[in-house]
Design goal:
Layout (H helix, E strand, L loop, with lengths): L1 H8 L2 H28 L12 H10 L1 H14 L15 E6 L3 E3 L3 E10 L2 E2 L4 E6 L2 E7 L5 E7 L6 E8 L10 E10 L4 E5 L10 E8 L4 E8 L4 E8 L2 E6 L10 E6 L8 E4 L2
Parallel strand pairs: 2-9
Antiparallel strand pairs: 1-3, 3-4, 3-7, 5-6, 5-8, 8-9, 10-11, 11-14, 12-13, 12-15, 15-16
Length: 274
């Protein structure tokens, strides 16, 4: 009764104001209920694919973001579990060569096997290196076996052959390698060069070059003053005479060298002149 009397005795403007306030309160209550319903969903749904692993790494890298996410998960009651990928498995390589020695310039057959936990790894890539330089790239077969034929062009008494397995990014396996040593048989060669101590500008520099043992190969004669140089190719057997022009040179002191690359069983050689 008091309520009805209150409205009856209240001026019209006061009554309209109270009605407006009541409507506003009802709208606010409805808005709060809507927020609560949205804030506590029954089940989170993703509308597009999300890389959760990348998201986790991003959150871990930012302490402030990590703290905010922890607070949100605690208040919302959500529980997210990320499966940790398994650690890469160790691998082992075995390497064999068909001979313990080889003539320089000759070929060797290289064989081996790639396994992990005593199981062969199939269709994996293995690289073969000779003294650190790539010589072949092969793939393992259905039994994890690989083989290659490589040429030995290194003139050293003992050469290392290495097989290396480097898995692709994201592989389930770890890298591994194996090595074998091979003796290389070759003949040493000797070059001798004679040149005048001084020449007049415009006169040629006459070089006398000899080689032992006599073999046919192309040698490179180079003249340099430390900042500028040029070279000429010559065909060399046992002896050669080379005339180097001086009209294109500035007066000064020059160094002359002869380089003969290896040919078959005959090793390379370099000789410095005056």
């Amino acid at each position: 009764v008091a309520f009805n009397v209150f409205f009856a005795t209240t001026p019209p403007t006061r009554w309209l104001h109270l009605v407006f306030m009541s409507t506003s309160i009802l709208a606010l209550v409805a808005f709060v209920l809507l927020i609560i319903a949205v804030y506590k969903p029954s089940e989170p749904k993703l509308t597009s694919p999300v890389d959760l692993s990348s998201l986790v790494e991003m959150v871990r890298a930012d302490p402030q973001l990590s703290a905010e996410l922890s607070r949100f998960l605690s208040e919302s009651g959500l529980n997210i579990t990320i499966n940790t990928p398994p650690k890469p498995k160790p691998t082992a390589l075995a390497l064999l060569v068909n001979s313990s020695e080889v003539v320089a310039g000759g070929f060797l057959e290289v064989r081996g096997a790639l396994i992990s936990n005593n199981r062969p790894l199939v269709n994996e890539i293995v690289a073969i290196f000779i003294e650190g330089r790539a010589a072949a790239v092969v793939s393992t077969d259905g039994k994890g076996v690989f083989k290659a034929v490589v040429r030995i062009s290194v003139y050293k008494p003992l050469v290392n052959i290495t097989a290396v397995y480097i898995p692709l990014p994201g592989s389930a396996y770890l890298p591994s390698k194996a090595s074998a040593a091979v003796r290389v048989l070759f003949n040493k060669t000797e070059l001798q060069i004679s040149a005048p101590e001084a020449v007049l500008w415009g006169s040629p520099i006459v070089l006398n070059i000899s080689q032992r043992p006599p073999i046919v190969r192309t040698a490179i004669v180079r003249i340099s003053n430390g900042t500028w140089s040029y070279g000429v190719n010559i065909e060399l057997y046992s002896r050669a005479v080379v005339n180097l022009p001086t009209w294109n040179l500035d007066p000064g002191i020059y160094n002359i060298s002869v380089y003969a690359p290896g040919v078959g069983v005959f090793a390379l050689h370099m000789q410095l002149g005056g």
